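My main concern about presentation is that the manuscript never shows what a single data entry looks like. An entry of this sort, consisting of the sequence and the corresponding backbone structure tokens, reads as follows:
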Amino acid sequence: MPYTSTQSPNPRPPMKTNRWLMPLLVASAGVLILLHHITYQPALSQGDHGRDLYAAAASLRGDVPYRDYWWVYGPLMPSYYGLFFKFFGMTVPSILLGKLVLNVLSGVLCYLALSALMAPLWAFLGALWFWSFQPDFFFTYNHAGGITMITAVIAALFSYLAGGKVRFLWLGLTAIFILGLIKVNFGLCALFSFSASVFVIDRIQGYAKPSGRKLFYLTALGFLPLAFFAVYTLLLQGLPLYYIRQCLPYLRSDHPYHMAFLDVVRLWIDGTWMNMNISWPNRFFGVLILAATLQSAALVSQKAVERRTVLAAGILVFFYVTHLHEFLDGGVFYRTFWSKPFSILLTFLVLETAFRRMASAVKVLLFGTLLLAVALNLFEQIDIIRAKKLPEQYLAHPRAEVITGNAPQWIDTVQRTTGYLETHLKKDETFFALPYDVIYYYLSGRASPTRQLIFFEHINITPEQEKDIIAGLEAKGVRTIVLSSRMRVRIEGGMGIFGETHCPLLWQYIQTHYKPAAQFGDWVNEPGWAWNHGTVVLEKTGE
């Protein structure tokens, strides 16, 4: 057809011109929204966060996860955060900066996933909603990388759904491989969900027959599982079986949380209902989602919704369910956080579908209401952080330099214990911290004298392992031990009482060869994950 006066002989597709503009604007918004988190840690734990900080620092020394120190996730993230230590200094805000980069990228990927199916402005609001309401894995920095790769998988899958371009399949598999190096069970879960979704999309959309996807399925179902197996086998080669199970606790007997399946389902229903009714805004939003779901279902029944939109909704439900597998196994509620990105994306898919044909005034009202909810939640977060910017909330150690939400007593105990160690230890001398107080290795800049960093009942430390640890302490001439009040946990399941419920040989060795030299903090109240923290420093007798 000849060009008309309104056509250019060399048309330039608008999508090409603006291809990166909106993602850059979305990323800029994410940085502005999340920037205040760089200097604030809501709760800093001596165990879990101490482990992550220690692992990042150990990566700079060339230490390898599993082989050189106990690590319970995939091997990738210590190296990632170690780079931020290297380039931005060894402080907690450097780690928080690394986490911010991942959180911003996750929101951008949510935008890319939604923009493949709806108007950019609605997709942008979905990214804002993600940054505002996606719950944080408060106990580890590791999982921020996992959420980023999960959103990358969905973005790749929806981009493939929108146009059938094969390159998005390979981008999705790349994200899955990285996810498997962050947390292997979610890598395998995403691999299964992605492959099954591609099969369904191809059958319904007619992009290709399974025989035309031989290389894809060979890579997805053959090469990638073998690659995961090879990487983990290489890292775990030669290590005792009991230690491998401690690092990869995927058998039911390897973790303390167990619940019958029907009880877990009931817990999920109760939790969802409670969240919907916790406040009037939550109730309003719950009613809105229910109404939008019913309206969308009616439109689907009338065949008034694009097939790919229906497919996308089904894929999100499928991913949501499969990524609940950890929660369904043990009933630990924060494990539902892995599925939250899918529910956020599904929420905006349903809302945009339901309101697409309504009057512009109604759509503007809805958009404004959701934007207001985002703004109010973000302002509330900023106010919380501003209220914590007090001298007594600042962990001033040169390797910390962070405002925390911990009680001032916790901060004082950590600083006094670290100060004692730095004063009394020789330049290259290390110490032994237990049952799970890895933060002192990180703050004092010392390497653990033992590969094992955690000593709780559910870790199932064997007598053979105890003997190896004792031999290592003797060989390295460890004169100092830091023992925290977490050695006696009576309420929290799976922790136990050190020396009674677990590690009797190690406890006997400590009692025989060490005596108290200093004591700090709270030894009265029940010790907690990041509160009621007390320490006693033991010195070896006769030295």
Observations:
- The first strand starts at residue 40 and ends at 41.
- The chain is about 60% helix and 5% strand.
